[in-house]
Amino acid sequence: MLARFLFITVALLAFAPHQTFADAACGRGATSDLLKLADWTIKPITADRNEMTETLVYSGSKNIRMIDGIIRYSDVLGGNIASKAIDRDASIEPGKPYMQKGTWGPYTFERILKMNRSDVAVVVCVRAVVYADGTKETF
To answer: Which CATH number is 119's domain given?
Structure first.
């Protein structure tokens, strides 16, 4: 009986889809495969304002004219730092960097200023897109 249980368990694990950290962070109804974060920076611009810049690269084949997605920042232990929306009306071309910049007040991203960069985990989650040809895709 135990041998049968172990056989079934191993078989299920071998053929089960493996979920990556990024997929788990995005949750159901979103993908972490479409856009990748190439780089990010944060710098203080006043005593209570920070400027954050992200450079994203799109791996698809058709131009995007609208997107529903977020960039989620957490620490390497899984603790949430903050999330921000991707500019909904972004025009994003395949293989070309897309840069997004914004300013943030206190109690959002300032923790990152004190952290070691290697302790910051970033995931880009996309729920839906509208391509330049008008077709929509939901994940």
So the answer is: 2.60.40
